[in-house]
Amino acid sequence: MWEILTHFSGKFSDSFNSESCSDCGAGTYSGAAAAACTACGTGKWSDSLAAMFESTCTDCAAGQYNENTASNAISACVSCAAGRYSTTVAATSASVCAICGAGTYSSASSPTSCTNCGIGKYLFDNSNDEILHNSVDDCLLCNAGSYQHSVGSSECISCPDGTPFGTAMGATSQAEAGCIPCFCAVGKFCPDLAAGEWRAKREKIATFTTH
Fold it and tell me: What's the rounded Cα separation, in Å, for the pair 160 and 179?
């Protein structure tokens, strides 16, 4: 007469009428009377032995992915590369890691978002090359004659055409950039003076108008 042994959840036997049950290894689980353990799916991992439920398989966090099954450690979850980010939990492919957009970068581990470049800076590339978004140093200072007062910008704002400007890099306003407005009447034009001369002229006008 055959004696049938029922295996408890979290264990298995690959032999009929076996008198012993083996624990399911990390990265797998099983229900009762299982002939084999079931692997945790891609995007998940588990370091538990003799796991009984699929819920034992833990999702890889946002900013990570795992393309393999039966993963037995959190290290199986691979971080998106610097310059990319992901908001997807339990991601199964590196394709979920998107390149940061214009005016932003990502240098953190397992990034779930990108960081804005600060004021006075810009980053023109729009999600084309991760190498251009993987460090705060990718945010470039606005050139002389331009400025930027907003964060996360793809370009800087130039001083008005035909106006002299200073030599400051990374300006955050027209004043910092030394943009000198021309006060000429309609039909006339501003003479080609050096920025310093225009600055003195502007300060003189400002002094006159406040008295």
Answer: 7
Q: Which residues of 100-126 are buried (b: 16+ CB within 10 A; e: fewer)?
A: bbbbbbbeeebbbebbbbbbbbbbebe
Gap between the Cα atoms of 14 and 122, Å rounded? 62
Quote the CA–CA distance of 7 and 5 in Å, as a whole number. 6
- Look up residue 145 and give its amino acid: G
In whole angstroms, what is the distance from residue 107 CA to residue 200 CA? 44
Separation between Cα atoms, residue 19 and residue 148, nearest integer Å = 75
* CB-based contact 66:60 (threshold 8 Å): yes
Q: What is the mean pLDDT of the chain?
A: 84
Smallest CA-to-CA distance from 156 within 168, 143, 165, 167 is with 143
Return the pLDDT at 12: 47
Helix (H) / strand (E) element for 11: namely strand 11-12
147 — phi, psi (to 5°)?
-155, 165
Whether residue 24 contacts residue 51, with contact meaning beta carbons closer than 8 Å, is answered with yes
Report yes or no on whether pTM surpasses 0.90: no
Residues forming beta bridges with residue 59, ordered by sequence position: 44
Tokens encoding 20: 């012993």
Contacts of 173 (CB under 8 A, 6+ apart): 147, 149
Type of residue at 199? R
What are 157-171's pLDDT values in tens digits? Answer: 999 876 778 899 999
**Amino acid 138: pLDDT:** 98
